[in-house]
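1st attempt posting a full record on here, be nice pls
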Amino acid sequence: MTAPQSPADPTTTRPGGTARLAGRTVARIGFGVMQLHHATAGRDAALRLLREAVDLGVDHLDTAHFYGPCNELVRAALAPYPDGLVLVSKVGADDSGGRLVAAQRPEQLRAQVEENLSVLGVERLDVVNLRRADAPPGLIAEGDQKVDLDSQLAELSALRDAGKIGGIGLSNVSADQLRQALPAGVACVQNDFSVLERTAEPVLALCREQGIAWVPFFPLGSRFSGRPKATGHPEVVSLAEELGCTPAQVALAWLLAVYDRTLLIAGTTDPAHLRENLAAGSVRLSPEAVARLDRI
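the predicted structure (as tokens):
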């Protein structure tokens, strides 16, 4: 096995340029490992894909213990981890017999952090995102899983004070919830956001105001059935033809253009799609092109 090239190596391209995340400088295009849970090409192909991502300049990975085998794959592919590689995980859910369920109580969050640390084989997670379950898409908390945000932040802050977490992020939150969390220190926000899905604009506006990293999930549109994908929108397709790139690259380039602290974590199980996503960092949209996409 060829060891992955260190993301800190100055000869490595930093896809999309760089931005700050929890006090670290990272490439603006990282890699979300969730789709590897559903990879059909096999374990060896998944390991090769992770190594290739790092070799191509990816220096932050977005993972979670409830993404099935993904943490184990990350460790098998990349440990001992290259200098500069930032591991970002998520808590707030659990995989119960193949079914994702909410796991929002403070003691559950702590257990999930410990599980991430154990399986990844690290003593500290660079960032842990708290996935709230108040609103779609996906999980909705019920019963004793309806937990107040302050209690969750107190537990994660204690883990940060103990050195097990570097930064605390939020996922699937409203602007009011982000504002409530600001005193705890927020490293990043992950929300459903794309050129076709702008519901989270008020959250993005607050991130801009506070200088918080913005990490859109479903950046090409939703993976849920019945919701459109950016790559099929006529304006996106037309602009891609004009620029000589793919619709996916246009949609990702727009996200990079709308805020200089946007970090992308588009995932894939296909090496060609990986390279396509990383190349989106070289697509330059003119102000006129951005305006055209803004009007969608």
